[in-house]
Sequence to fold (314 residues):
Amino acid sequence: MAESKVLIADALSPAAVSRLQSGGVQTDDRAGIDPAELAKILPEYQALIVRSRTKVTADLLKGGKNLKVVGRAGVGVDNIDVAAANAQGIEVVNTPVATSVAVAEHTFALILALIRQIARADASMKAGEWDKKNLEGTELAGKTLGILGVGNIGAQVAKRAAAFDMQVLGYDPLLDAATLQASGAKAGTLDEVYAESDVITLHLPLIQETRGLLGANEFAKMKRGVYLICAARGGVIDEEDLVTALESGQVAGAALDVFEKEPPGANLLVTHPHVVATPHIAAQTAEAQERAALDIADEVLNALHGRPLRWQIK
Fold:
């Protein structure tokens, strides 16, 4: 039998290449390959590994006549046409646990940066100022944290919220109350999370049901002065409505790592004085990227060798 060939289209830890090669497959690292070149050479490969940069469209998949598996080194698969892959018998796998700690830690970094005005304070100091009176913050202790999506990442966030003496209210339609409780969150409806939370953090995939989930109607249901955090996927929040809510004070501040269009440029949301913005770096730790690389290498090898899969996406 001919040796299987794996194409890596986005930057991945060298550990993944070594793991794949030791697993008996030919591995070509073409990180940063442009879409036209990718489409041209893809028919030669049995496996494709991507991160969020590469868009694995139905047309691209159609040209991958020998593809058996597409691996996403990370959690979200909104850049992959999963339905088209499944229709062609191509397996789609991801690494849902590798970056959970990194994203949870970044979520709390965003929360603290927002409510303690860290970015404004740093900019002020760098400008030679000492502006204590205008940099009053808010404490987390005794506040309620609402978590939308209490999966691998949301559960890690709930765990950390307990250390800050926060009450945690969670909403996840895929989990029952007992499972939510075991994650450290009291189960609530969406409306209860909106009405009772002082801080709301989103850990949801971008799918048809979640696109534009938070808009004007939802902001109106929230406590006035709520803080909003999103290190999940751009598109879950209606960005124009969020700007309006920030301007009115209904939302006191937002900390965002993801945007509907990436990169977003210096738009009204990114440059808003009550927004802390980071460039989709929640999962960007050395440890998380190493875990994701090794996990996706192992899962792709499982697919190529006909072994059971841990993280198959349907």
